[in-house]
């Protein structure tokens, strides 16, 4: 089973404590803010992302390009975005 973690919308999106496990697949895909991240079924969210973690790169690229990451044909997306909630 996939592990989806929704970003709380508060605090640094690069800090894993700002994410919460959800039990449904999110409907968000694109926008200008982080919506959620996907981890493989065997992975659990680490206490902190580190600079060598692909997730840091994916989050940075998603924020810079406003495109779900990673990109490519047939590639599983690990970072999803949403429009700002007002």
Chain-wise SSE layout:
Layout (H helix, E strand, L loop, with lengths): L2 E5 L11 E4 L10 E7 L14 H12 L13 E4 L4
Antiparallel strand pairs: 1-2, 1-3, 3-4
Can you characterise this structure?
Strands 2-1-3-4 form a four-stranded antiparallel beta sheet, with helices on one face. It is built from one helix and four strands, in the order βββαβ. The mean pLDDT is 86. The protein has one domain (1-42, 66-86). The longest helix has 12 residues, at 54-65. The protein has 86 residues and is of the alpha+beta class.
The largest β sheet comes out as: 4 strands, antiparallel
Which regions contain 5 or more consecutive residues with pLDDT less than 50? none
Q: Work out the strand percent.
A: 15-25%
Going by helix content, strand content and strand pairing, the class is: alpha+beta
- Care to count the β-strands? 4
If you average the pLDDT, what whole number results?
86
The number of helical runs is 1
How many distinct folded domains?
A: 1
* Shape estimate: globular
Rounded to an integer in angstroms, the radius of gyration calculated over CA atoms is: 12 Å
* Widest sheet: strand ordering: 2-1-3-4
Order of helices and strands: EEEHE
The helix fraction, in percent, is 10-25%
Taking the alpha carbons of the first and last residues, their distance comes to: 32 Å
